[in-house]
Write a structure and sequence with these properties.
alpha+beta, Rieske Iron-sulfur Protein, four-stranded antiparallel beta sheet, binds FE2/S2 (inorganic) cluster, about 170 residues, 11 strands
Length: about 170
């Protein structure tokens, strides 16, 4: 008996504002945290897939007709990078033969990674390759050869004009 008064424990303010009735507050908190984590991750994944689908559903041939490059400036089997239909839309063309040129959106139809051209043994025997998940597309048509993509690459309609310039035709149908 020294006359000291024992302090009365006082509940912290958060406990008064959010009085849990559960047997184990700690367990409930962890469970709820995990639920929010799963919910947040699911929402972000759904948003990413939605954005990828939206960008791929846009037609690629919606821009204004545009001169891209002189045919003579691209060697057979070589590629040329440009933007189409918008200035932020990466696109790529390849000269397959003396007269044949094809162009595609550079965005993979799986999750939007950048595709590039892998030459084959023959100048026109290459393919479009996406390194993210090993997606492969046919060089001429952009159709899926293998990997997770289910839709072909967005093909950009081209024409080689009389002066030798390659044009993206844009809205022409
Ligand atoms: S993003 Fe191209 S294969 Fe997945």
């Amino acid at each position: 008996m020294n006359g000291d008064i024992e302090p009365v424990p006082v509940a912290p303010p958060w406990k008064r504002d959010f009085p849990y009735e559960a047997q184990s507050e700690e367990e409930v908190t962890r469970r709820e945290f995990a639920r929010y984590l799963v919910l947040g991750a699911g929402t972000m994944a759904a948003a990413n897939v939605g954005i990828a689908i939206w960008t791929q559903l846009r037609s690629i041939n919606t821009g204004e007709p545009r001169a891209i490059v002189d045919l003579a400036a691209v060697d057979i089997g070589s590629t040329y990078l440009f933007h189409y239909p918008g200035n932020d839309d990466p696109a790529i063309l390849v000269r397959l033969t003396d007269t044949e040129v094809v162009a595609f959106s550079q965005k993979c139809t799986h999750l939007g990674c950048v595709v590039y051209y892998e030459p084959g043994d023959e100048p026109d025997g290459g393919r479009w390759h996406c390194p993210c998940h090993e997606g492969n597309f046919e060089a001429r048509t952009g159709s899926v050869i293998s990997g997770p993509p289910t839709r072909p690459l967005g093909r950009i309609d081209l024409e080689v004009r009389a002066d030798g310039t390659i044009w993206a035709l844009g809205r022409h149908t």
